[in-house]
Amino acid sequence: MTRTDRTDGPTHTAAPREQWTGQVGFILSAIGSAVGLGNIWRFPGVAYENGGGAFLIPYLVALLTAGIPILFLDYAIGHRFRGAAPTAFRRLGGRAGRWMESLGWFQATIAFVIGLYYTVVIAWALSFFVFSFDLRWGDDPAAFFVGEYLQVGDPGFSFEFVPSVLIPLVLVWVLTIIVLAAGIAKGVQRVNMIVLPILIVAFVVLVVRALFLDGAADGLNALFTPNWAALADPNVWIAAYSQIFFSLSIAFGIMITYASYRRRRSNLTTPGLVVAFSNSSFEILAGIGVFATLGFFAFEQGIGVDELEGLTGVGLSFITFPAIVSQMPGGPIFGALFFGTLTLAGFTSLVSVLQVVSAAIQEKFAISRRAAALAVGGVSAVLSVLVFATTTGLLALDVVDQWTNNIGIVASAVLTSILVIWVARRGRELRYHLNALSTFKVGSVWVVLVGVVGPVILGYMLVSRIITLIAEGYEGLPPWYLVVFGWGAILVLVVGAIVLSILPWRRSPDDFESWPPYPPVTDEPSATRRPEVRS
């Protein structure tokens, strides 16, 4: 049946594509994707270790020269070519669509692998939310987390499951599958519109409480006192680009997929700016809350903030913060707020990550939304439990995360920029698409930022990280373990991308015309310029 929607661009045939109910729903969902675990446990430590207040300068430069331009690139690709990453890249590639499709599957497999272990961290946060009420970690949070809770064993592969991890992990997977099966408007959007306001209010309450703790000012001074000499260190600038890049959910299919569900006549760049600056604002808010709390911790121990350990990542969240909660007035409430916000921030990001995979499978094999959600969620849940709910789960998670993020995602961004701008030569067309629909226009400098600045900086990051991992290993772990879980994860991404791109489509994605037309048609009335679009 043909559906004509004169308020939404061209005519569609076949089943209409799912859509966000409006701009607010899209913006909240995109912010929910961007605001995740890394905003809370990564940014504060990275800023502190890379110049304090001075770090905000390279951070802002990175946001404007790489973060926002690549975010716009993802929006333009997804919205113009109306599909998840594999579909969109196939259509973008034109005659070379078949091999461009493999880039889309590379991004989808990255999202798949991230979903396997990201869910586990959310399960940990959910457990510690419950533990906060009776301070179950006791006087030694490190021993509790590593020993009693995770029961960490030696590097290897174990089928000895940890019930305290397994039960919340299964619960998180059930909730995730339900949200994905409900669809974009009734599932993903509804969750974000409910959860994101709760997350923000709870986190603001947490930050305000932290600001009134003894020693909070010392913590803030440690974070924001600028070390201007750090700006001369290239590694500080690389750290800024790395933070922006990883925190905006770009270059592994999320924003391509999310943009594909926007109505055809939709402003793209202004919402993109809202999402980017909202994400950065939350990171700075997280930095204030975390370091005000760390200042209290240092004050209680009679030491300087610079003498504290465990200022980022898993150590900050599940060892340092529980120790702080045990010492502060009203600790159980503060702990519940912290781990509750960590759980909510992680869950909204998780849903976006897995939507990339679910949408790609749904389009490739022409199956229903529910079938795709059950297939992706079911397979992911089984693998997640087998690998990460065991006594070796923490070590495997750390290694897989390191390789997938620092090699997989960065390689994806470099390939996307080079293939889209220089090989497929779609830079001008995508710029035209953004400007034809948006109030905030992008100039030709946008193509330069995406096609030159981004690949050069990210390429340097990629090469230097590969050299470091090969030469120095990682965290003193055995080389064979890094080959299996680190380089093995990259092999899974590459092989998965190749195999999935070779498999036949149940319904051809090539019967499609992008809109608005490019080059733009100027010799006929606009009312007649409504190409037939099959999507």
UniProtKB/TrEMBL annotation:
Membrane topology: Multi-pass membrane protein
Principal location class: membrane
Cellular compartment(s): Membrane
Transmembrane segments: 20-41, 53-73, 105-131, 161-182, 194-216, 236-261, 273-299, 333-361, 373-397, 403-424, 445-468, 480-503
Keyword terms: Membrane, Transmembrane, Transmembrane helix, Transport
Record's compositionally biased regions (Basic and acidic residues): 526-535
Disordered as annotated region, ranges: 511-535
Cited CDD domains: SLC6sbd_u1
The protein, known as: Sodium-dependent transporter
Organism per entry: Microbacterium awajiense
